[in-house]
Amino acid sequence: MPELEFITLQDPSSSLTATFVPGAGMIGTSLADDGVEYLGQRRGLEAYVTAGKTMGIPILYPWANRLSGNEYQVDGTAVSLIPGNGNVRTDEHGSPIHGVLAAYPGWVVTAQSANALTATLDFGADPTLLASFPFPHVLTQEVTLADRVLRIATTVTPTTSARVPLCFGYHPYLTIPGVPRDEWTLTTPAMRHLPVDDVGLPTGNHEAWSGGTTSLAGTTYDNGFDEVPPGAVFTLAGGDRRVDVTYETGYPAAQLFAPPGDALVGIEPMAAPTDALRRGDYRSAAEGSPETARFSITVT
To answer: Which is an annotated Pfam family here (predicted)?
Structure first.
C-alpha cells in the first residue's frame, strides 16, 4: 500500500476526532471520542485501497450500490461499463457496484484547519474516469467537526453544458463501542421501502415503511428506501451511547445495511435510489447551477 497522509480533525468543544485520507479517495477512517472508535473498520484501509472493500466512511461515486447492467444512457449519450477497466468493480453477481472512486488518489486538499477540511477532484481531467461517467465536473467535499457533529457537504459543479446525474452516496459504517450488538437499537424515519431481488436490485415494487425503533437482536438489514424526508434522522443507540445520522439536504434515498455477525450498521445517504443511473430516476446538476448534498453524524 502506498504511503498515505492521514488528516485528523479535532472538535474544538470536545474530545471527538475525525480522520480522513485524501490520497485514498477522501475516505473517513476514524470517528473517535477520546480514542473510542465509532466507525466500523471491517477489513481495514489496506483492503479498501487494494481491493475496494469498504470501511469507515467511503464515498460511493458516481453511483451508489448496484447497477442492473453494464450500459446506461443520459440525454442520448450511451455509456458502456467494462468491469475491471476505468475503476469499475463488480459484486459477486457481476453487477457494477459503488462507482469508480474507491481509494482514488486524485483528491487535492484546498483548505485545512484544526477542525475543517476541503478537498476537490476534477473529474473531467481524468480520461479514465470519464470513460465510465462522461460528464465533466468538479467534485468538492467540505468536512467540518464541531459541537460533536461531523458534517460532510458534497458539491457537484458541472464544467461543460452536459448535465451531471446525481446518483452518488456515502456508506458510514457505524458501531456502538463496548456494547453487544444485540443490545443496540435502530430508529428510522417514515419513508418508502424498495424491495430487492436475490441479487440486491430493486424489483420495482414499493411499500410503506412506518419507521420507529427496532432492536437489532437477531435483526439484519440490506434494504433500500426512497421518499426520505429532508432533515430525516436515523439513530443507532446502545447502553449510554448514541449516534445520529441526519440527512440534512440532497439525500432523498437511503440504504440500511446490518449484516449478521458483524457489529456495525451502515446508514447510507443516497442522492438517488439503487440503479437510478439506469432507470433515470435521479436529479441532475446543470452548468451554472452546482448541487450540494449534506449529511451529518452526531456522537452523544
So the answer is: Aldose_epim
